[in-house]
């Protein structure tokens, strides 16, 4: 009889969890997801986020969620949210935060997110960070990694970048030049500066970044979630520092 009761109780709890899950208001009440890491990677353009994301994902077995990929996938699969997002994009408007949050909530409910996730490119603003908190609370343990690089380093890294318009190979005039100056090693096409990497564009991107990052870092620092990692000590050492910081936080009982 006691056994029956507990089974009934479990069923009710299960139903409740399913309802709130379908209602889309909270994450599934599944303890297996509870307190898995949600690693939020912050950093200026050119700070090495992509490289570090690859290392972290491999080391901790978490899923790499980039908002750009998420958008493309939803639009390609013509999901309800994808269609909504597309209507804003077609009208030349920014996709509202609620839509991004809805997409993210769905993405985090997929089975491959069960061991945790790494967010790349989100949140960018304080409002997004606050919205994110409402969907991860009690389910994921946020760890915020901020890759610190000076504006000068960003400028050197990005304005020195050259790309091949034919095969998309990437070079850098100082750090990884092609064998013959100005010519792609792979396909012999003259390499070019992408419009994103001109000095003027990089300056503009940095200025937007600085406006947004201050409040965002302050928000996470207040909650004791922020880890600032030096992004100018070479990618291997930076990766080691990121991994150590995440490990320390995962082992910490709080
Ligand atoms: Zn090429």
Structure description:
With 254 residues, the protein is α/β, with parallel strands linked by helices. The chain is 50% helix and 14% strand. It has nine helices and seven strands; from the N terminus they run H-E-H-E-H-H-H-E-H-E-H-E-E-H-E-H. It has helices at residues 2-23, 49-60, 67-76, 80-90, 97-108, 126-136, 151-159, 199-222, 235-251, and strands at 36-43, 63-66, 117-120, 140-148, 161-163, 170-172, 226-230. A hairpin with a 6-residue loop joins strand 5 (161-163) and strand 6 (170-172). Helix 3 packs across helix 4 and helix 7 packs across helix 8 (199-222).
Secondary-structure topology with pairs:
Blueprint: H1 2-23, E1 36-43, H2 49-60, E2 63-66, H3 67-76, H4 80-90, H5 97-108, E3 117-120, H6 126-136, E4 140-148, H7 151-159, E5 161-163, E6 170-172, H8 199-222, E7 226-230, H9 235-251
Helix pairs in contact: 2-9, 3-4, 3-5, 4-5, 5-6, 7-8
Bound molecules: zinc ion.
**Runs with pLDDT <50, length 5+?**
1-33
Supply the number of helical segments. Answer: 9
Distance between the termini: 38 Å
User: Which class of secondary structure composition applies to the elements?
Assistant: alpha/beta
Order of helices and strands: HEHEHHHEHEHEEHEH
Q: Find the count of extended strands (DSSP E, 2+ residues).
A: 7
Task: Give the names of the bound compounds.
Answer: zinc ion
Q: Report the portion of residues in β strands.
A: 5-15%
Strand order of the largest sheet: 2-3-1-4-7
Query: Which value, in Å, is the CA radius of gyration?
Result: 21 Å
Main β-sheet description: 5 strands, parallel
């Amino acid at each position: 009889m006691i056994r029956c009761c507990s089974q009934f109780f479990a069923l009710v709890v299960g139903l409740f969890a399913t309802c709130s899950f379908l209602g889309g208001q909270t994450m599934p009440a599944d303890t297996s997801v509870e307190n898995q890491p949600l690693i939020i990677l912050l950093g200026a353009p050119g700070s090495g986020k992509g490289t570090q994301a690859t290392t972290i994902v491999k080391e901790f077995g978490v899923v790499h969620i980039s908002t750009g990929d998420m958008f493309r996938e939803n639009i390609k699969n013509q999901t309800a949210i994808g269609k909504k997002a597309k209507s804003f994009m077609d009208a030349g408007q920014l996709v509202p935060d609620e839509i991004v949050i809805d997409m993210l909530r769905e993405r985090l409910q997929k089975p491959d997110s069960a061991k945790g996730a790494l967010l790349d490119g989100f949140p960018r603003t304080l409002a997004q960070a606050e919205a994110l908190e409402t969907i991860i609370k009690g389910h994921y343990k946020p760890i915020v990694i901020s890759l610190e690089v000076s504006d000068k380093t960003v400028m050197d890294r990005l304005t020195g970048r050259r790309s091949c318009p034919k095969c998309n190979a990437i070079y850098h005039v100082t750090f990884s030049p092609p064998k013959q100056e100005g010519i792609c090693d792979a396909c012999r096409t003259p390499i070019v500066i992408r419009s994103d990497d001109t000095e003027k564009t990089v300056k503009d991107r940095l200025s937007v970044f600085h406006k947004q990052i201050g409040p965002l870092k302050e928000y996470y620092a207040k909650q004791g979630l922020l880890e600032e990692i030096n992004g100018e000590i070479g990618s291997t050492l930076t990766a080691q520092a990121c991994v150590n910081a995440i490990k320390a936080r995962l082992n910490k009982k709080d």
